[in-house]
C-alpha cells in the first residue's frame, strides 16, 4: 500500500534511528542515507554505460519534510570523487542549519551538452509548459548548476519567453544560501542525470530518468492494493481540506504554497463523490460527519423557484450551471445509496425538475447557464455539463423508478449519439452511458456508442503525455459497461479488448506522474501540505479539489474492478 504522508509514525522512526532527535548529528543522519544511496548507485551505475563527463558531477537534495529541499553538488575526476565532494558540502550545510534530513535524493550526471541561449530558447519552446526535463549549469565547470526539479519547482524556467528568469533564479539561490548571478550567460550546459531517492524509512528508489514520467519512482506493478493506497492517501488530503462551514479549501499552487482563492460549486459537488468513494473503501464516523457537512454546505447554495424546482447557484458568478445541478444530484444520490436512506430525496427531485427546464426533450440538447433569477444567460459553456446532467437524470430514475427521468436521459443520450460525442473524449459521457445502460438494456446502439467512446480514442488516450486524469475514469466506466455486456451474454463486436486493457494500465501508470511522492514534494515550498495527493504539472503543479477528485475516481474504479481487469488479461508490461 502507498504510504507517503508525513505522519507522527515517520517522525518517530527518525527518533529511533537517531536517539535524542533534538541532539542528533545532522551529518550522521545524512551519511546513513547517503550510504544506502551509494550502495544502489554502485550496483546500477555500470548499467548506465556512462561516457564523457558522466559521473563527474553529483547533486544531493536534502529535505526535512516541512520546507523546500536544499541542494549541494560536488565535482571530481571520478564518480567516487564527485560523490565524496558532494557529501562533504551537504554535511557542512546540515551542520550549519542543524537540520536532520528525512529525505535524500542523489542525482548523478549522465549526459551534458553546451548550448547557446538561443538553443535553450528553442528547447523550451518545443516543450510543454513545466515538462522540460533537463538540468541547467550556468558555467562549464558546474559552479552554479540546478537539477530539473529545482528549475521547474521554483519557476526558474520561463516557458513564455524561452529563457531563465533571473529574478526567480536569484531568489532561489539566495534562499538556499548560494551565490547569486549578476546576469545570465551566453552559453549554458544542459544535462541529464540518473537519480535515486532515499525515503524516510531508508528505502531507496531508482527514479525514471527521462520522458513525461521523469523524476518519479518506478512502480513495478499497480495492483488493487496499490490503487487502494492511492485513493486512501489522496482522499485523506481532501478530508483535511473540509472546513467548519462544509466548504473546502479550494486548492494550492504548491511551488510557493499559495492558496487558490477561487471557488466553484460544481467542483465542490463532484468532490463530495470522491469522499463517498473513500467511505466505501474504509468507513469511519468522522469522515461520515465531514461528508454530511459538505453536503449541507452545498444545500445552502440551492435556489428554489417557488414552483418545485431547484438549482445549484454559483454565488461568485451569480449564475446557475447545468453541470452543478447534475453533480449535486449525483453527490446526494451517492450518499443515499452508501448510507441506505432517503435523506436528500426531496432536494434531488427538485434539482431534477430544474434540470428538465434546461433540456429540450425534442432534440436532447441542454441549455447550460442561467442567471440567478432563473432567466437564460448562456446556451453553451462546456460539453462536460451535458454528460453530468444526463448522468443525474439516470440516477433519478434509479432513485424513483419513474419513466419520465429515464425518458429525459434517453433524449440526451440520443443527442450524444447523433452529434457523435465520441469526439470529445468526455468522461462524463462515459459515466452517463454506464448509468443509463443499467436500465436500458435492449438498445444495442447505446452499447455500441458507449464502447466507441473509448475505442475511437484509444490511441490518443494511450499516448497522452500529461496525466489527463479524466481518461482513466472514461476507461473504467466503459469497462463496467463491457463487463455487464459480457455477463449478460450481449455480443461485443469490433472491440479491441487487448488494446483497451493495455491503455487502462498505461493510464494508471502515467497518472502516477501527477502524484506527490516525496521525491516530487520535496521541491515544493511546503512538502508536508501536499504530500500524497495529486497535481496538474502543466499548470504550476496545481493541486485543486477537482484534480484530486478525478484521480480518486479513476483509481477507485480501477481498484474496484481490478480482479475483473486481470481476469480479462490486463497485466503490467513485462509481467
SSE layout and pairing:
Blueprint: H1 8-17, H2 26-45, E1 57-63, E2 70-75, H3 79-97, E3 103-116, H4 117-125, E4 135-137, E5 145-146, H5 148-153, E6 157-158, E7 163-164, H6 166-175, E8 187-198, E9 204-206, H7 224-240, E10 251-253, E11 258-259, H8 265-281, H9 285-300, E12 302-304, E13 310-314, E14 319-321, H10 322-339, H11 345-357, E15 359-360, E16 365-366, E17 369-371, E18 376-378, H12 384-400, H13 403-418, H14 427-436, H15 444-455, H16 458-462, H17 470-487, H18 497-510, H19 518-521, H20 527-530, E19 543-544, H21 545-560, H22 562-567
Antiparallel strand pairs: 1-2, 1-3, 3-8, 4-5, 4-8, 6-7, 8-9, 10-11, 10-19, 12-13, 13-14, 14-17, 15-16, 17-18
Helix pairs in contact: 2-3, 7-8, 7-21, 8-9, 8-10, 8-21, 10-11, 10-12, 11-12, 12-13, 12-14, 13-14, 14-15, 14-17, 15-17, 17-18, 17-21
Can you walk through the features of this model?
It is a single chain. With 575 residues, this protein is of the alpha+beta class. Helices cover 48% and strands 14% of the residues. The strands form five sheets. Strands 1, 2, 3, 4, 5, 8 and 9 form a seven-stranded antiparallel sheet that branches. The chain is elongated and about 80 Å long.
Key structural traits:
alpha+beta, 575 residues, elongated, 22 helices, 5-stranded antiparallel β-sheet, 7-stranded antiparallel β-sheet
In the predicted model, the low-confidence regions spanning at least 5 consecutive residues are 6-23
Total number of beta strands: 19
Please give the alpha-carbon distance between the first and last residues. Answer: 19 Å
Q: What is the structural class?
A: alpha+beta
- Sheet of most strands: 7 strands, antiparallel
Silhouette: elongated
Radius of gyration: 26 Å
Proportion of β residues?
Answer: 5-15%
Oligomer: single chain
Number of helices: 22
User: Average pLDDT, to the nearest integer?
Assistant: 94
Tell me the helix content: 40-55%
